[in-house]
Structures are given as structure tokens and as C-alpha cells.
Amino acid sequence: MYLVGDRIQIKGFRGDVVEISYLDTSILECSGDYLGNDRRSGRVIRFPNSLILKEEVTNYSGPQMPFIRNETPLQIAYTSDLKFVENCLLEAEQKDFKEQYPYLTTHKNDEWEPMVYFRINTYAWMEAVVSYPVEPTDTTGRRNRILKYALPKLNEAPGKVQFPEGTLR
């Protein structure tokens, strides 16, 4: 089920519910054909309520769980100091979390804890991925804030972390 204000996905359409009538539901599309992020596209999608009986509905928000998990990957060299990278990314995530959700910083919940993991990307680079909780409507904003906090600290330590440069990216 969903309510006005929830971010849902149904039959390939994703957006924020703005109106529910007896016959149909209207959502403000997010993502979509022309966007590579989760921002609203400006398009309104209207579908008949009978569709919810035939299709799977994913509700990304709601009172049961205010957050979804999001990830931000960074390409780094295999020779980077992985502990340093992990600490920088976690510090950036925590700084943003405390600023965005000051009322939650004293209420620890294991499901909301951020984590950093590493995965192989190419022969020359790997990815450091920070995974964190975010409100469904703030995924792009939170990703950008975390990068703005983390990148200066990572760039200040070229001996500990190297990034792809030039045509090697």
C-alpha cells in the first residue's frame, strides 16, 4: 500500500505519490528516461488503481522504515591505504547524517549503520563503496554532500590514496 507523499515504483514507473482518487493515482516521476539520478523529472504519471492488483508495487518510504540504503562508489588504486579510505568515507557519512538527522544521532540502529566495502572494478582500479541510509527523496543530495566532505580529505593524502587520472579512467 502507499499514501500521498510516499515514493513508489510500479510497472517501471518511479515517483512520489501526489494524488490518490477512487479511479487513479498520480505520481511525480523521479529518475526516468532523461535523468541519471533520483531527482524529480517534472513529469506526472497517472495510472489506474486497478494496476495495483496486477503489478508489484514497491514502496520506498513509509512509517515502518524511513530510510533506504544507497551506495556511492569511488575508483581508487589497489595500492591505496584501504583503512584510511574507509575512515574518510565513514567520517563524511557520519558528518552528513548528524547534520541531516540530528534527532536520530542518539538513537543507534544497526540497520542504519553505514559501511564501506571494496570491490574489483578493472585491472588497474578498484572501487571503495560507502553504503548508508537515506530518505528516498534525498538520495542524490546525500551522495553529493558525502562526496563534498570526503574528497578534500582523500585528496590531501596522495600518498595514501590514488585516483584514476587522464585516459586511465
TrEMBL record:
Subcellular location: Membrane
One GO MF term attached to the UniProt entry: mechanosensitive monoatomic ion channel activity
Origin: domain of life: Bacteria
UniProt entry keywords in alphabetical sequence: Membrane, Transmembrane, Transmembrane helix
SUPFAM superfamilies per UniProt: Sm-like ribonucleoproteins
Pfam families: MS_channel_2nd (PF00924)
Listed Gene3D superfamilies: 2.30.30.60
Recorded GO CC terms: membrane
Oxidoreductase among keywords: no
Primary localization: membrane
InterPro entries assigned to the protein according to its UniProt record, in alphabetical order: LSM_dom_sf, MscS_beta-dom_sf, MscS_channel_2nd
Record domain Mechanosensitive ion channel MscS: where: 3-61
Key word Transmembrane present: yes
Record-given protein name: Mechanosensitive ion channel MscS domain-containing protein
Organism classification: Bacteria, Pseudomonadati, Bacteroidota, Flavobacteriia, Flavobacteriales
